Amino acid sequence: xxxRPSSFLVTLLRRGAPALATATSELSDxxxxxxxxxxxxxxxxxxxxxxxxxxxxxxLRAARYVALVPLVYRLFAVPGAxxxxxxxxxxxxxxxxxxxxxxxVSLSLYGIRWMLRTAPFRPQHAVRLLALDLVFxxxxxxxxxxxxxxxxFTEAMAVPGKHLLGEVALLALALGMPAAVGLALASFPVRxxxxxxxxxxxxxxxxxxxxxSILGVLFTATGALVLVGLGTRLALAYGIRNGxxxxxxxxxRMLHDSVLQTLEAIALANKGDPAVRLAEVQRxxxxxxxxxxxxxxxxASERSEAGSRPLGEKxxxxxxxxxxxxxxxxxxxxxxxxxxxxxxxQIAIRDAVRESLxxxxxxxxxxxxxxxxxxxxxxxxxxxxxxxxxxxxxARPAGFGISESITARLNEVGGTxxxxxxxxxxxxxxxxxxx
Length: 435
Prior knowledge:
Pfam families: HATPase_c. By secondary structure, the protein is of the alpha+beta class.
């Protein structure tokens, strides 16, 4: 009989924040669906099954930062309780109470420093730190009971009590609710033993008096786990969905800017001598097949190499590419700092200019175009200008090439595109991206 997959919510409460590493597994498309649905139904989808054997290392490393909250709480609450004790009782029992406060602060500071360091995250080190912290949490009340006078015992116990509350929250977030509940239950006999050492009486009533505070911490930690876990899963679902949409749009642009352009060039090839036309078709098909193969096999490295060149070189290479297809592009480039524009924005500009030049080649009825690059309004503007046939933007709405290969491409990197044209007066395309 197949094992039933675990619910993400159950796994989260059982394992704590590290269960976030399973958040991307078995993630239903319905979670990220923007179509309105009942809140309880969406929560049910977010709480759906996960593969508990799957582990995303990036999410696992990010999950550790959740533990900063109880550590920071202890960093302020314990010294605060110590300050209240000193202001009330002065120097009576200050030695052991101060040592407990110092130990708590030291452990909290070390834990914060350890989690914020740049070294690789090692789970075994985290386990040792948690074990050390847990031992201190259980021994601190006993030290207070054994070393402070009975007259100040109750007030002195407020210092390790604050540490205990932080430890309960820490275990709930780092190891899950079973560990936190186990510590909460163990704290009652420890408190009674400390009372026995300090006052000669077990005082179960005093031990139970801490129950509301501990229960409040457990509920708060549970709510924090649920909110962080479900919120993370919802954000991941939206991110995956939007990533797929963006990748689909990129593939559509790639097909439009490569395969479709080649097919249209073949359709517009020389209608004369069949042999010449066949040779031209073969040349275009061969060039396109090489481009597609290069894109499929080595796209990442190709983009990295292209991105390492300055924008001027990219546009010069593009002008040479268009010259082979019969369009003469005159480049006018202002003096620019090579590091002014990020690689992502340079590539977006280059690809948008390529689409603009191909539109000129196909529709303008001219073989000349001017490409000017200049600084403008806190960014870089690339302006292509031809004196071809032009068109009426009102009579001819923007097609895929303008809306996706130019406008959408620049929008993705924070830029804009503006197309100005009129019949008989050519076309001017202004592409702009911020620094």
